[in-house]
Amino acid sequence: MTPASTAPLITNDIVGLGLIAATLGTIFYLSSRQDGFWKKFFSWVPALLLCYFIPAIYNTAGVIDGHATKLYDPVARDVLLPAALVLLTVSIDLKGIIRLGPKLLIMFVTGTVGIMLGALVSFQAMRLIHPPTVAGDTWAGMAALAGSWIGGGANMAAMRETFNVDATTFGQFAVVDVVCASILLMPSLIWLAGRAAGIDARNGADTSAIDDMKRRIADYQAKSARIPTLTDLMVIVGVGLGVVGAAHALATPLAAWCGANLGFAKQASLDNAFVWVVMLSTIAGLALSFTRVRELEAAGASKVGTLFLYFLIACIGMQMDLLSLLERPWLFLLGVIWMGTHVLLLYVVARLLKAPMFFLAIGSQGNVGAAASAPVVAAAFHPSLAPVGVLLGTVGYATGTVLAYITGLMLKWMAGA
User: Fold this and answer.
1) What does the alpha-carbon distance between residue 231 and residue 229 come to, in Å, rounded to a whole number?
2) Any transmembrane segments, and where (predicted)?
3) Which of 1, 179, 401, 402 is the most buried if burial means most Cβ atoms within 10 Å?
């Protein structure tokens, strides 16, 4: 972070906002290039990582002071985060998910259980292998990472605030996230996609449900896709920010009531108004998914939510101390053990069910990659299957906050915090 004796180059938050917006715009423009150096560069370096680390460079180099700016708190944390949760959950089609078939749902749930179990296994394993790795607030950083691996970036950020994770610890786990999920797991699943037919044949897997999914998805796309109008965008923003306003209005009295009447409120963070903002926003988004509001997804509701999310991610990056990120290399072993537990459980259940390789891959990425990279893995099996990744990935947004919160409480108990 910026040394106390040195004033940052930029102290005006409006200028800082412009810098962050220009940075994100440049990253996404370059990542969209279809040829040349940048295509090769972004095949190795995820755009998400740059959205964390370029703002962190600004902070470390003294261009901005991420701890003094108000861009993160209250703007990004209290407004953009809950709005992203609303817009990323409002598009969930639970009926459509049920029609995908029981094996896929079982594999998805297995992936979720694998993440939760892997958190506990890796914490205990590192306690035996290298106790300092799980000392201090490591459990809180793991809770944030569980939010990412069950849901996505918004859930990770929500857990960061729920458990008050230090910015540097959060940054370290952001690196673990990218290394284990984007560099190790996702490329491996894409590689297996090209060999799925042979693997399924050897395992005796029934792939007829996948063909049925391709047909249903093609029909849905033909009916729902449209170019968003100004009215669509106004309604999308109105729904997102309107729910956030209502959540803030209810959160403070709810937190106060819980603190006064529930003995376990402090241990469960139920006396924290922000926790209620996150939960109410997620619940509201899920409830709206059963109404016609879900049709806003055809006009890009999740894209607007993702836009909010990336501004949030950049504002979190502004608080990182890059010089401290590599002080705890043992965290990478923790991440490998955690991810290994997740994959092993999926493999065992897939063999027992004779599930197709696609179900295993999307059961994993629907959790770990969420709606951001799950469709990439799904499309590696067949382009028309990409929306299946989006469908399951959005479920993670709805469940990630609650399940990561439960995982965090278990880790907190294990840590004796």
Assistant:
1) 5
2) 9-29, 41-58, 104-126, 138-158, 170-193, 233-253, 273-293, 305-324, 330-350, 357-382, 388-411
3) 401
